[in-house]
Amino acid sequence: MRELDLTVMARGGILLTAWALDAGVPPSSLRAALRAEGWQQLCRGAWAVPGREVDWRTRAMAIQLLTPDLVCSHRTAAAVLRIERLTAEPADSADSETLEFVHPRRSVARPGVRVHRVPGLAGRDHVVRRGLRVTTPARTVADLMRAARCREEAVVPADSALARRVIRGVRRDALVGAEGVAAELRARRPGAPAARRWLRLADPGAGSPAETVARLHLHDAGLRPESQPVLRTASGRAMRPDFYFRAAGLVVEIEGYAFHGTRHAHERDIRRYNTLAGCHGVRRILRFTATEVFGRPEEVIAAIKGALRELSGEATT
Fold it and tell me: Is 286 exposed, middle or buried (0-12, 13-18, 19+ CB in 10 A)?
């Protein structure tokens, strides 16, 4: 058995039991070799080469090798495409999630895997990204919005896909336009009417999920700041704060989950704060963390309203 070297039969670090059996490896010898050499079982019929770090992408690739018609969808497609969702997990992480796929005929739910049956799935509905077949960005956002349990859960991925973002150090362009998502949402499917209403709340200027949630709470409170406007320093340098109440001169900055993180990031953040403070028209800056936005939004809104009242009073004295 040692002479056969199972790694030669593997593709991309993954071995299917069927490939080894088709090559003439006896079942008993195959089982013994897999155990002895430390192969890692990904799912029934698929193994990862010894020593390979097994993540959600590896598991998804194995499942697609076993069932070529499956296409990554919903949360799994979002992770592949780096579309952020209403979660503290990084946008390209799905390690703690059930892997999701669509199939034109099958509908399956088993531990760690969910397959949605979509009879009308066509070739134009999916693309290959990072070695996986995934639903297109427009289809992925539409699926997430239709399945959303609340407004925030729907608008966050829409904002993310519509915007240019830096995701875990990877800069990507906007993935789709609002019209592309709207076209996907025209189909009569469960959740589509609410998703179409929520899409009207999307803003491609949003810089993070926390900014999206903060903007929605601001709108609920009747507050309409400018999102990501261009402000100028005395030297003419352009700055883009998260939110700006121009009449009051109030800037509101929302820090993401990766707030500071390193000494360099902390120093860069302080420089940005000081530069913003020097922009023409800026009278005050409020900063809030993502934890505050998600966990204590009423306190965030109260602080902003208080600052607006104070600044308005100062302007009239």
Answer: middle
Average pLDDT in the chain:
89
Residues 6+ apart with CB under 8 A from 289: 210, 254, 255, 259
Give the Cα separation of 287 and 208 in Å (integer): 14
Residue-wise pLDDT tens digits, 108-125: 667 789 999 887 778 888
137-159 per-position pLDDT tens digit: 999 999 999 999 999 999 999 99
CB contact at 8 A, 158 and 202 = yes
Q: Say if CB 230 and CB 238 are below 8 A apart.
A: yes
Question: Is 156 strand, coil or helix?
Answer: helix
CA separation for the pair 137, 162 (Å, rounded): 10
Residue 263, helix vs strand vs coil: helix
| Percent of all residues in the chain with a pLDDT value above 90, rounded to a whole number | 67
How many Å apart are CA 164 and CA 203, to the nearest integer? Answer: 12
Instruction: Determine the number of helices (DSSP H) and then strands (DSSP E) in the chain.
Output: 13, 17
Q: Tokens representing 190?
A: 């469960």
Cβ(13)–Cβ(54) under 8 Å? Answer: no
The model's pLDDT over 13-62, given as tens digits with 9 standing for 90+, comes to 999 999 999 999 999 999 999 999 999 999 999 999 999 999 999 999 99
Quote the distance between the C-alpha of residue 196 and its chain's center.
Answer: 20
